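Thought: the user asked what Glycoside hydrolase looks like in 3D. I have the sequence; next I should run the structure tool and report back without guessing.
Action: structure_tool
Action Input:
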Amino acid sequence: MAKKGIESSAEMTSLTTLFLVLEAQPIRSPSSSYVEGAANEDGRTPSIWDTFTHAGKMVDKSNGDIACDQYHKYKEDVKLMADTGLDAYRFSISWSRLIPNGRGPVNPKGLQYYNNLINELISNGIQAHVTLFHYDLPQALEDEYGGWLSQKIVSDFTAYADVCFKEFGDRISTWTTLNEANVFVLGGYDNGIVPPQRCSSPFGINNSTCTSGNSTSEPYIAKQHGLIGFNVFAYWFIPHTNTIEDITATQRANDFFMGWFINPFVFGDYPEIVKKNAGSRIPSFTPHESKLVKGSSDFFGLNHYMSMRVMDDPESLKVHQRDVYADMAAKLIFDWDGIFPDEFPITPSALQGVLEYFKQVYGNPPMYIHENGQMTYRNVSLNDTSRVKYLEGYIGGLLNAVRNGSDTRGYFTWSFLDSFELLNGYISSFGLYFVDLNDPDLKRYPKLSAHWYSNFLKGGRRSTTNSGIIDEVVKNFSATTETSHLTVEGAVAEDGRKPCYWDIYTHQGKMADNSTGDVASDGYHKYKEDVKLMSEIGLEAYRFSISWSRLVPNGRGAINPKGVEYYNNLIDELISHGIQPHVTLYHLDLPQILEDEYGGWLSPKIIEDFTAYADVCFREFGDRVSHWTTINEPNIMAIASYDSGIWPPQRCSYPGGVINCTAGNSSIEPYTALHNILLTHATVAALYREKYKAKQNGMVGLNVYGFWCTSLTNSTADVTATQRANDFFVGWVVSPLVYGDYPEIMRKKAGSRLPSFTKRESELVKGSSDFLGLNHYFTVYIQDNPSSPETGIPDFNGDMGVKIAGTKDDTPTGQFVPGSLPSSPSGLLSLLGYLKDHYGNPPVYIQENGSGGPHNESLNDTARIDYVSGYIGSTLEAIRNGANTRGYFVWSFLDVFEVLSGYQSRYGLVHVDFEDKELKRQPKSSAQWYSNFLKKKKKQAGMEMKNINKSGSLNQTSHFSQ
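Observation:
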């Protein structure tokens, strides 16, 4: 099972360093049943899994009789491991091959095979890690006494282990007794989905397939044994909501799913809640047994692939006949529909969370990540970028845990080869190497992930560029942060600054929390402290906006020397710390005086005034600033200010207005405003090229807010509506920049209400952007809405003719206000691909992307880490696919005064205490993660090497798979 994606060349360096320090034992661990094959050869007898598969119980009716045939091809496979760079390999021994009857005579052919495999590994410099049991109980013992339901298995398994220790222990130093025992007992004895398929009504998933069993007691009986070196399967459980009930249920889920098995090894008994809810159905340890079990595991093996959300379910405890899940009194929720997703979601912080949990709750025992990997459909492609992203991310999560003190000794990815997988046979694949099942020789082919993993294990390539994420594809890519002066600067009435229309808006109490940006994060006075913090975190660039009202207080005319001084000081401070300034000229902050005089963006007069303001900026700061963005997200500004009316100057008319506006025309003004914005941008770009480009050699671009629009259904109407939405949201801004005019569908729908470009204006706008700035946060779902506008009075949304939903479960509506929606990094990947394919692959900077949290969010903001890591992974994948993406800016560096929500939401990597008069800054976990991602100094990597434990591993299989 599986999980997530990597970060920067600095992180690549750090991760590689970790495993060099851990002596990089890259492991891929197969089960004998998954990979070994030769099920009926050389004296091997059936295991319960053979019986299960031959009864046609697999989804694809397959079996592991041949699997990857590693029994015959082990030399070829070990050579492939050595070529890949593995330092260790984890595999399982088949009890049925070594001791065919489960007890008694040892099979010499079995001894010979495992001796040969171990010797071959060692001769190639690969350390062997062995698992004794991976789902494959000899059928003879199941038939004789019910296998794991009988105490008799203790002596038989111990005798089998004794043979292994005696025959192979001179060359094996790391043994795991049982693989993911918790999943085995639940699947084998509660829901009955894996052999021996014992369950009882109503708990079995398919009671018709179960043999006689008792789901209320057998899972508790089956797991008791007293041996060393133990593996457990672990989800990272997350409360479904922040209620006390769901939080308590989450702890209960941890106790039932992990504590059920780990507590006895650490504390000598089951968790109290497990004993309380299961009652007499869970066996008790005698004092002797408790002493035997406690401390009997020298390490814990951990299989981890994904997170689950937990919802309290107290009603289940009221049922008289209960199984483990009912005793748990919690509903476990996957983030996908059905039993298996196409691929596992990527949330590396989940692995970090599990390791931190083991550290805090169980005294930081030695840990090996025994299984972690990404599932895809077999035969899809050798270019398995999702697997690369997954491994990058999870290794990053592991690194963070080690840095935080976790005693994790090694990491094994599942799996080295595509193998015979539990339940779904050959339908899915986890391997770094593709196995051609149609080839009689079962030929192996390396996937992209094998090349990546090999490069990683051999030291990886280290970028020497400003902030590449893997040299060969992102030499010019930078990842950094940004803020707007409106949201961070404060000092609105100081040193000559005059009001902008956002000041007027907030002072009228229009914010959700009735707040203002008068102080905000006080960046005006604290810029030196903030730049020092940026430098410590490792930022190489910082995007901020200039306040037009501070620099040119009346919108035109006299320049404010205090404004010039402040921005010179900020820019110089950044540069002195090696941080490149990226500047936005306009971020929602029109001088109120121009709004009062001629209606701001509704008048063409603004073109001249904005160009004069831009001229001041280029002249005063252009010797040190090379990246200029004229206007931030003009499409959203035009809609929110002149259609829905939720932003200043709050102009709208029925039916477009979300509020009751006192003035405006939602049918015309959004189009007028954006038309003037485009002409303003183009005029400013022409000024720069004519007057400053030769000397300053900078770039001037325009920003656009981009949802990724995807069809709610596959109907032709919804697919067509989705393209229309892309044309209205993104094409409205980008098509004129690339083609010199608006999209045809907009011309058709809006008619004469959409201004026309003259030939001169078209030529001026076309090609006026050296790059596109992109603000992106989430995906929306589009449904055709052919009846709009029902009133016969058109506005922007009516012209677009769609309904929009934030998720597939939401009811689509005609209006849409950006908000906090589920993370979907693939949306950014698709959007970058769309810009590449539809607009000639322009240079793109992702200028805003980030995750909001509540005002009282924890400093341990793991959700933000997941979000940012996922979206950076998608950016990387887009670059690999050819997108000309140059950089990525997280919104935002600090918690700031946010548009609409004021101080109710937080997007920052750094916490600002707005209750403290000093506005104290404190880095969150995301800042630490981002810092690790950005830094690429060998000195720091060298210091980390001294602090990390010297042992570890990296690859594995089970005898099932090879």
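Thought: the tool returned a structure. Summarizing for the user.
Final Answer: Structure for Glycoside hydrolase predicted. The CA atoms of residues 259 and 294 lie 13 Å apart. The domain at 9-462+954-960 is CATH 3.20.20.80 (TIM Barrel).
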